[in-house]
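Researcher: Here's my situation. A collaborator sent me these components and asked whether they could plausibly form a single complex. I don't have experimental data yet, so a predicted model of the whole assembly would be a useful starting point for our discussion.
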Amino acid sequence: MKNYAFGIDIGGTTVKIGFFETSGKLLKSWEIPTRKDNGGSLILGDIASSVDKELAEQGIAKDDIEGIGIDVPGPVLKDSVVNKCANLGWGVFDVAEEVRKLTGIQNVMVCNDANAAALGEMWQGGGQGHQDVVMITLGTGVGGGIVHDGKIIAGNFGAAGELGHMKISQTETMACGCGKTGHVEQYASATGIVRKATEMLDASDRPSMLREVPYLSAKAVFDCAKKGDELSMEIVDFVGEKLGYTCSLVSCVFDPEVFVIGGGVSKAGDILLNTIKEHFVKDAFHACTGAEFALATLGNDAGMYGAVKMVLD
Amino acid sequence: MKNYAFGIDIGGTTVKIGFFETSGKLLKSWEIPTRKDNGGSLILGDIASSVDKELAEQGIAKDDIEGIGIDVPGPVLKDSVVNKCANLGWGVFDVAEEVRKLTGIQNVMVCNDANAAALGEMWQGGGQGHQDVVMITLGTGVGGGIVHDGKIIAGNFGAAGELGHMKISQTETMACGCGKTGHVEQYASATGIVRKATEMLDASDRPSMLREVPYLSAKAVFDCAKKGDELSMEIVDFVGEKLGYTCSLVSCVFDPEVFVIGGGVSKAGDILLNTIKEHFVKDAFHACTGAEFALATLGNDAGMYGAVKMVLD
């Protein structure tokens, strides 16, 4: 094993680059803008330049780089080929091969961002000590990742762990971002939580602290629930019920050791975790009710950690 | 690799013993009764005697046996420990270790019967040519198995692939065999199909061929549907809808290459497979709609095949 490696998380706005010791220690991280001009054709070149510059500045030879792990906000096949990534303007192409050409570093692996986060959290975050981990990322949307025996399960179409698109309501009439209806993302994303709050506030004149907040957000809902606001507590229960039920379905398929809950919404902390767990135990198959639940701890760095872990295994 | 191996499928009534070449060819199979007296303490001894007798008759030395794979109708941890198997009277114990002692053969592995069937079908049945397979077994109950990269995923509590206990109805009032409500097994098992047929026949005077059959069974429902009986066709559509929906949920978690449909109910053939697929495509996340569907082909031998495959890998 060489001494260093890169873990790179490509997002729609910025690229986070992590420079790691192969022991797993993050030595330094920085961001560069994600240039989406020209169909995203500049992104990988920008990354290669930034990597080269860093190595030159530190006087480290490429021979001392174990590899580069990269995650992207879209489905990835065979640790290598991105299968359309609308956020970046990308169609279907072999990202790993392109990065090999641009950097001269041969050990390059690519995965989906939610999968990378799951692997990162297993390795050095909320899922530490486990090898079979399901991560659910609650942000603007809902993503997920499945780690089995310490490795990402990507899926035949790169869609394993797409937990946000499990259909959990048969009666929903509004469409999910993907076009179908009744998906987890419609209820448990930050957007979905605000939608539910708006619906409940509009449906009656019930008093609620939420009527006083300057900006209705998922954070405001959890904050008010923690202060005992009844309507907010009902929304939290609704979200926890949807997620607990989702986890009960996942358990019948994959039966993980631990569910790690991450993403911006998870900053709500124990109130969210405990509500999910309570509903999970109610819905889950009896054999699985002992599954653990944990909060993610790596925040926005989870992707970098998971990305680099791929090339260290 | 030695020349021979055993694949043994322990059921509630009979034990099926398969004697294989390690190339994968089944040379001979036979059955012995499952003696459940004395808390099932005689079962493994009976198996060891039968194995010894066969080897003696054929003049084959134990040194020439690669291993013994065994599947049981209950959850199994770490390819070895049965975690309660009510059907056989067993509590928690290390079946692999016991069989090593009884036979003197050291390479012994144990798994759940539905998981073994999934592995067997991947290897030499309906899932041939694939490495990521989900099998659903439709019998008196509904079982399932998940194979990833050619290996069984057993799950942290031995409950991975318990697809029959996914909760797919929020409104069901009757209890599943496991005590909870709204599970796949309540709709797609042979028992569930007969229940649905009885409910529909009792609910009205609608004419149906089913009113004339001597014995109302899942087979009768599919047979009448194939003859164009409208009420039977509605039941088939109902079952296909429940299973297609279930597969759509599984795809968001594991995204397999193929779903293999087995068990007695699957003898209905293409009418069942096509109905499941039709509903799957309607419900599934867009990326996964291309998943394949196939009928199981090994019948009751699938368990023996999967069991022996474990010790050949």
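Model: Some features of this prediction you could bring to your collaborator: Chain B is about 40% helix and 25% strand. Chain B touches chain A through 41 residues (CB under 8 Å).
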